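Most newcomers find our protein records easier to grasp once they have seen one. A learned vocabulary of local backbone shapes supplies the integers on the structure line. An example says more than a description, so a record of this kind follows:
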Amino acid sequence: MRVTQEGNLYQLTWLPRIFPVNCYLIEEEQELTLIDAGMSYSMKGILIQAEKLRKPLTRIVLTHGHMDHVGALDGLKKNVPEAKVYISERDASLLAGDRSLRPGEPQSPVKGSVPSKIVTGPDVLLHEGDRIGSLVAVNTPGHTPGSMSFQDQRSGAVIAGDAFQTFRAVAVSGKKVPWFPFPAMATWNLEQALASAYKLIELNPSLLGVGHGNLLLDPVEAMKRAAAEAEGLLSGGGAVHG
């Protein structure tokens, strides 16, 4: 496991050169918040890093319900039962294995690996603007119907789940990147993802952290280029819902 620190943020990465999977520890004054729970094998590294920081892990916040972001959830909850689990109200259904769509949503199929054996449910259902310690929740649907990003109000850093990727290239979710197309292949709706990308750009983040790829400092220009590429894909008739 590789650990990359930027201020109060710690990016934990498994298989960084092959198939990077990231989780994030956010250090508060008295406690720690984990963003995403990686794969089942991520649990040990998360607990070891939390122990090194000598603060209790009190929150497990999920950007969305795909298995590579919730895989260690049951193990973490067993080891740290006092930690509360947070996920968007919308993706709580996905966490429970329900791929069904709601009225008014684009009816493109939900893609990606949806949990079938995760037994841990959420303690808190999140909505736009909710505060979780220093973090503010931002609805960023597209990769899944209920994907959320989180901005640290102290630093301006944004953790965006799979709304973007930075591995191999900076890309909006749904735009396939050669040699690492997997986030795009698991994306529900490219139009929604593009709208969410522009929403994140408007936040003017100081740092972008994603589910797959390295941290990106001063990311706005790269995010704008990625959004323009995704928009070109849509306007060129190459849009694929997912």
Q: What stands out?
A: The mean pLDDT is 96.
